[in-house]
Amino acid sequence: MCAKTLTIDGNEVSAADDATILDAATEAGIKIPTLCHLEGVYDIGACRLCLVEAVGIPKLLPACTTKVVEGMNVRTDTERIRKYRRINLELLFAERNHVCSVCVSNNHCELQTLAYNHGMDHVRYDYLFPKWAVDTTHPRYGMDHNRCILCTRCVRVCWHVEGAGTLNTAGRGARSQIIADLIQPWGEADSCTSCGKCVMACPTGALFQRGATVGEMEHDREKLEFIITAREKKQWIP
Amino acid sequence: MDPLRLATVWMGGCAGCHMSFLDLDEFLIDLAPKVELVFSPVVDAKEYPEGVDLVLIEGAVCNEEHVEMAHKIRRRTKTVVAFGDCAVTGNVTAMRNQLGLGNAENVLQRAYIELADSTGRIPKLKGIVPELLEHVMPLQEVIHVDYYLPGCPPPADRIKALVGALLAGQTPKLEGKDIKFG
C-alpha cells in the first residue's frame, strides 16, 4: 500500500492510497461536518454537508466519497463552504416538518446540533410543510417521515450490518421516502428482525423507540459502534 | 440617557416566551430603570405606539390581525426581534399548514364543533374575531426581522444576552447553543 501526501487546511497530511478526503482529515484531527456518513457502512455523499474545496477544481467535492489525490490542496472551512453548508441545512429544515420543540430527539439530534453550530438562527427559505404520515405499526419502533432527511443511514445498516434488507428508499426527489419491504406498513414487513440498528443509526427523530416522548429518545450509537468494531476488527470492546 | 422604549408583542404563540422573559428574575430590576415598557401583554396599553426602539415579537403570524399588526410594528419600530421558535420558524403554531389548503376550517371545526360539550359553534363575528390565514407564517415571511432569538422558549439567559447587548449599544451576536431551536 503506498501513501499519498496532500495538504488539508495548510497542514501536510499523508493518507492511505484508497483513503477519502474525510478519512485523511479525520486521521489528521481536522473535523469536517457530516450527516449521512456513518462509521462502519459505505458512504454515498447524499447530504452534502462535508463539501470541501480543492484548489484548481471549480466545483465543491464531498469529502466522504472523494478519494485523495497526490499533491491535492484541500480547504475544509472557507467562507464559500460555510455559506453552502448553511444553505444546505436550511433546505433540509424547509423540506420537511422539523419541529424541534416537540421532537423525541430534541437535544439529541445531529441535524439540530449542526444547525446551531453553523450559525443557523433562522431559515431563509419558505417552509414546504409537506404532509407525511407516521408509521407506528411496528411493535417496538416508529418511523416519522416528517423528520427524515433521507440520509439512508438506516437503509445501509439494515442491509450491510444487520443483513436483513428490510428498509429501502422509494420515490423521487423531495417525495422520496424510506420504505419497509414492498412499501408495506413496517409492522407487516416480514424481513425485519426488530434489531433496532436503524434507530441507533438515525441522526434525527425520524426513527424512534415507541413510548419515548419529547426529548427522551437517545440513539444508543455506542451499541452500533460496538457491533461494527466487532465485525471489522474482531474485537469485542464494550 | 433616555430609557429605551421597549415593547413585547404576543401573536400566535403559547405565551411561553413571555413566561421566559419574566424568568429573567433580578435582571428585570436592572432593566427597569433603563427601559420604558410602552406596549406588552403585561401592561395596559391598547394601541401600539409610535417611536418604539425595540420590540420582541412572540408567536407566528396566523390571522389577519397579526399581519396588520406586524406591518404597524415594523413602521413604528427601530429594531424588531423574532422572539422564540414560533416567530422564527412557525413551530407548533404552523403545524396546521401540513393539512394543506382548507386547514383553517378544519382546525376551527375540530376546536369549536367536534370538541365542544354541547352548543358548539365557530366564532366568526366580523370585525371582532380576526380571520385565520390559510397558511401560518414565521415573522420574517411578513416583515423584515433584525434579530432572531430562537428557542421554545428561549431560555432567560439567551434573552438577557440579546437584550443586554442591544441596551449596551452593541450588535448582538448569538451563536452555538444560543441559537438552538427547540
Can you offer a commentary on this structure?
The complex is a heterodimer of chains A (238) and B (182). With 238 residues, chain A is α+β, with helices and mostly antiparallel strands. Chain A folds into 2 domains: 3-77, Ubiquitin-like (UB roll); 84-233, Alpha-Beta Plaits (2-Layer Sandwich), CATH 3.30.70. Helix content of chain A is 24%, strand content 18%. In chain A, 40% of the residues are buried. Chain B has one domain (4-97, 131-177): Rossmann fold (3-Layer(aba) Sandwich), CATH 3.40.50.700. Helices cover 30% and strands 21% of the residues of chain B. Chain B has 6 helices and 7 strands, in the order βααβββαβααββα. In chain B, 38% of the residues are buried. Chains A and B meet through α3 of A and α4 of B.
Question: What is this structure's SSE topology?
Answer:
The complex is a heterodimer of chains A (238) and B (182).
Chain A lengths: L2 E6 L2 E6 L4 H7 L23 E4 L2 E6 L10 E3 L3 H17 L14 H8 L16 E2 L5 E4 L8 H8 L6 E4 L6 E4 L16 H5 L5 E3 L11 H13 L5
Parallel strand pairs in A: 1-5
Antiparallel strand pairs in A: 1-2, 3-4, 3-5, 6-7, 7-10, 8-9
Chain B lengths: L3 E7 L5 H7 L3 H6 L3 E5 L12 E7 L2 E3 H13 E7 L1 H5 L13 H12 L17 E6 L9 E3 L6 H12 L15
Parallel strand pairs in B: 1-2, 1-3, 3-5, 5-7
Antiparallel strand pairs in B: 4-6
Number of E strands of chain B = 7
Q: H/E element string of chain B?
A: EHHEEEHEHHEEH
Task: Identify the strand order in the major beta sheet of chain B.
Answer: 2-1-3-5-7
Class per helix and strand makeup of chain A: alpha+beta
Largest sheet of chain B: 5 strands, parallel
- Can you tell me the overall shape of chain A? globular
Rounded to the nearest angstrom, the distance between the terminal CA atoms of chain B is 37 Å
Q: Using only CA atoms, what is the Rg of chain A?
A: 19 Å
How many domain units of chain A?
Answer: 2
| Straight-line N-to-C gap of chain A | 31 Å
Q: Please identify, by name, the CATH architecture of chain B.
A: 3-Layer(aba) Sandwich
CATH architecture of the largest domain in chain A: 2-Layer Sandwich
Q: At the fourth CATH level, what is the homologous superfamily of chain B?
A: NADH:ubiquinone oxidoreductase-like, 20kDa subunit
